[in-house]
Amino acid sequence: MLAAEVNLLLESKNTGWIFSVQGEGRNFQIEAVSEEFEFMTRVKRQQAVLRLITDEIAAGTLHAITVTALTPDEKSMRQGLGI
């Protein structure tokens, strides 16, 4: 699977979140940005993103997934730091 395919899969869930995906094969790094993450713990944020691709993980299509879930403000602060 390609990063663009994973990105399209995530966007097809109509969450309104902004996704950035890197990787290939079955191993991907997913960044999700949403205001909805404001009052969620880091673990709850990751779980929310992983729920979107549960079927693909269960089927083995996706295997090693790293999730970074940020609010727009957190994303902006990271960009300011060059991260």
The Rg value, from CA coordinates, equals 13 Å
Strand content: 25-35%
Helix percent reads: 40-55%
Q: What is the straight-line distance between the termini?
A: 26 Å
At the third CATH level, what is the topology name? Answer: GMP Synthetase, Chain A, domain 3
**Mean pLDDT across every amino acid position:** 94
Q: Total number of β-strand segments? A: 3
Report the CATH superfamily. Answer: BolA-like
Short description:
With 83 residues, the chain is of the alpha+beta class. The protein has a single domain (3-81), classed as BolA-like (GMP Synthetase, Chain A, domain 3, 2-Layer Sandwich). 42% of the residues lie in helices and 25% in strands.
Question: How is the topology of this model organized?
Answer:
Layout: H1 3-11, E1 18-24, E2 27-33, H2 42-51, H3 54-59, E3 64-70, H4 72-81
Short key terms for the protein model shown above:
3-stranded mixed β-sheet, alpha+beta, single chain, 42% helix, 83 residues, 3 strands
Description of the molecule:
- The chain is an alpha+beta fold.
- The protein has a single domain (3-81), classed as BolA-like (GMP Synthetase, Chain A, domain 3), CATH 3.30.300.
- The protein contains four helices and three strands; from the N terminus they run H-E-E-H-H-E-H.
- A three-stranded mixed beta sheet has the order 1-2-3.
- Strand 1 (18-24) and strand 2 (27-33) form a beta hairpin.
- It is globular and about 35 Å long.
- It starts with a helix and ends with a helix.
- The mean pLDDT is 94.
